[in-house]
Amino acid sequence: MNLLPVKRAILSVTDKSGLAEFGAFLSERGVELVSTGGTRKMLQESGLSVTSVSDVTDFPEILGGRVKTLHPYIHGGILADKDDEGHLETLREFNIEPFDLICVNLYNFAEAARKQAVLRDAVEQIDIGGPCMLRASAKNFHSVLVVPGPQHYARVQKEIEEHGGITLGLRKEMAAETFRMVSEYDNMIAEYLASHDK
Questions:
Q1: Other CB atoms closer than 10 Å to residue 57's CB: what's the count?
Q2: Residue 8: exposed, middle, or buried by beta-carbon count in 10 A (0-12, 13-18, 19+)?
Q3: Taking the chain, what is the end-to-end CA distance rounded to the nearest angstrom?
Q4: Which of 40, 83, 136, 175 would staple 78 via disulfide (CB 3.0–4.6 Å)?
């Protein structure tokens, strides 16, 4: 698939700068917005209609928010190859709706590390669901656009305005950027854990 129309998006971010405007841009073009927790609340307060991830999964957030998006109705919708009829048949069989855009940025572990938080507190700022969604959407860039930070919003909007969808070139570029970012995030955590006893 060269040009990807955007019909359904997950927005789940720590850095909410520019998100209300980006969400409004997508919503005005008929994109269904799906979100979690604080991101959903912020978008709703901006006057946008947002579907809760819990409504998609039919399962609540649990373990103090540690488990929200780790579900086949989320990851099946992200990882399905839209050029593979077998994948599409599986989506139909299990009533899974595909996603086209995944906008995620991660818990601010760097801030926890900077504050020298005790290890038990710092680990609560290790994002799990976010990196899973980022890696899944980056892997499946032939069928999904991953947007790993607000610095990319303007470019995504320009592509949609000019082409009516997202080109394969931008999807591949964002995938590479995402894998680099997640790798740096994991390396930062590894270094922190190695240097703290408790």
A1: 17
A2: middle
A3: 49
A4: 136
What are the tokens at 82? Answer: 């839209």
CATH architecture of the domain with residue range 3-194: 3-Layer(aba) Sandwich (3.40)
Beta-carbon contacts of residue 70 (< 8 Å; ≥ 6 apart)? 128, 129, 132
User: Residues 143-158: what's their mean pLDDT?
Assistant: 95
Reference 150, options 17, 14, 10; nearest CA is 17
Which one, of 167, 129, 133, lies nearest residue 148 by Cα?
133
pTM of the model: 0.89
Alpha helices in the chain (DSSP H): 19-28, 37-45, 53-57, 72-79, 85-93, 109-114, 119-122, 129-139, 153-163, 168-194
3-state secondary structure of 46: coil
Give the C-alpha separation, 127 to 131, whole Å. 7
For the chain, which residues make up each domain, given as ranges? 3-194
Residue 4 C-alpha from the chain's centroid: 17
What pLDDT score was predicted for residue 150?
Answer: 94
Which of 2, 6, 1, 48 is closest to 153 using CA atoms?
Answer: 6
